[in-house]
Design goal:
The complex is a heterodimer of chains A (354) and B (336). With 354 residues, chain A is an alpha/beta fold. The longest helix of chain A has 18 residues. Chain A has 13 helices and twelve strands. Chain A folds into two domains: 263 residues, P-loop containing nucleotide triphosphate hydrolases (Rossmann fold); 72 residues, no CATH class. Chain A is 32% helix and 20% strand. Chain B is built from 13 helices and no strands. The longest helix of chain B has 36 residues. Chain B is globular, with a radius of gyration of 25 Å. Classes of the chains: A alpha/beta (354), B mainly alpha (336).
Chain lengths: 354, 336
Amino acid sequence: MTQTIDSSASLPSAPPTSFLEVRDLHVTFPTDDGMVRSVDGLSFKVERGKTMGIVGESGSGKSVTSQAILGLHNSTRAQVSGQIWLDGEELVGKSSEEIRPLRGNKMAMIFQDPLSSLHPFYTIGDQIVEAYRVHNKVSKDVAKKRAIEMLDRVGIPNAAKRVDDYPHQFSGGMRQRVMIAMALVCDPQLLIADEPTTALDVTVQAQILDLMRDLQKEFNSAIILITHDLGVVAEIADDVTVMYGGRAVEQGSVRDVFYSPQMPYTWGLLASMPRLDRDRKGRLDPIPGNPPSLINLPNGCVFSPRCVYRDRVGAACVTDRPDLTPVSDTHRVRCHIPAEQSQRIWLNELNPNL
Amino acid sequence: MVRYIIRRLLGALAVLFIVSLVTFGLFMVVPVMTGASPAYLYAGKNPSPELIANIEHGLGLDKPIPEQFYMYMKGIVAGRTDLTDGTADGSRPCPAPCFGYSFRYQSPVWDIIKDRFPVTLSITVGAAIIWLSLGIGVGVLSALRRGGFADRASMVFILLFLSLPSYLFAILLLYVFVYGLKWLPPTQYVPLTESPVKWFQALILAWITIGFGSAALYARLTRANMLETMSEDYIRTAVAKGLPRKTVVRKHAMRAALTPILTIAGLDIAFLLGGAIFVEKVFSLPGLGLLFVEAIGKQDLPVIMGLTIVSSLFIVVANIIVDVLYSAVDPRVRLS
């Protein structure tokens, strides 16, 4: 079972029992204009065989979080603090060289744009073989057999022949399958998928999501799925973290977040999602305004400048920063609106209109 | 692939034909239009009208211009036997490739070019080794240590060599190492086959002059390309696969970053093979560049024409080689 924890709690230093646990993660980029707080106190847990969906707008800190887990941030340009526990091992503070044996091996990543994420000069076979051999002492022939096997497993027709093709010779969906084959070639226990379906058309999206779900069952891996597409999250995630301005604003199981969301930002995301199974009214309801500057975050609740429910609470929204507060065992919300009131708003005012 | 190369070679021939036509036009037609026959350039001081007439006949200048051009083109392919120096027994045999006879040296232009080419080749090869190794080395290192001390220091040197005019640099080198410290003898070119040490001594300052100036430019290009490549998504993928940094840099980043650099290098080298005019002049190296300067000074039209065609040949051939190599390195480029 995946669970979320309160980020404001003081940090225990003992290794957690969860497979992956992120505690109070901060990622800050110093720039000439000031400190960019891309991730500001994020915590979550993922167990093996489960999927955590991280949702939010561009710039909410989703990708920065995933790259922090793999230690991909340049230490001279990003400051990472907090704790990242992977299978009892703390990763923050480790050098790139110490994390390297884990990358691609215990934890692997699928990136958004498979064309630009594959090297244009090498065949996909070479690239998968390279990923396999860096962690496994095997001959090139053995690695190539493994590569063909993986390509076959992710549904690339005629894999034995296509293994010698270059990335530009594949279609977008096939390329993403290649990326998945490459990520899974060392049987990683943690798979981070950073918007894996964003660059693909819808029919292919569904195939890729099915594939990921099947592979998860087969390999019992933990998946972090980063997306701005709530439909994708509803489809395959077990738990959801909604991020805004570098913070988690709502965390819970898929049921919690989709059936009783309590944070106005989550409401906004749900309201701006087109749906076919409800009456089509004239327009979608976008969230007014733009995401905040991560250098000068608004006082009080970070979402308050865009929140249409601000006046129901009063001054607290613009003066005090709300904590991530539990509303049930599995569900936490960062909002000044009292839980009973927000439940009422959701049930009476919003849900019927969605 | 073979068809592509054949097509490119045919295109190259067309380009060379046009270059020949233009140079032929400039150097043969213009003197006629201005009223003075090129025979005067050949004849020396105060020639008699008969001598001019004989020379014109001997060089074929009395024929219609299209025929002259045809003979010239035919000479390049098949050689010529019709040339004379205007006297009765002054036959001038000119085997292919015949670019005519020099007005000044009384020998076939091709022989002179063949004689001078090893000097220019020596200059080019040495300079290219310096500028490629130094330029690419410094560029890669400063990109990898972006913002660090090594990067800043190398940027200062790059700026220095880019802004230092090469004539000043060459003369400074000459002044310090030849006349000041006396580490090197006053330059006198000696072929490599005769004395490798003297050959090296004669060329080292020329190599440094060209090499350092170009290295600065290449270092900047390499640094920029390398920085751009290092921020590519596929580099992030390579790191995320768990590859050691060395592999990421050498196998993934450098191959992509250096491919365009080698393209430019191919053309620069070809350009230099046509003669490093300025450096050859300063260090008195008798290569194609110096030959060109002399030929212009003495209005030695056949030599100027021959050199122009030969240096365009280098450029055209280098272009084809670079394109073929590029397709070998980058599989996205299909030759068809």
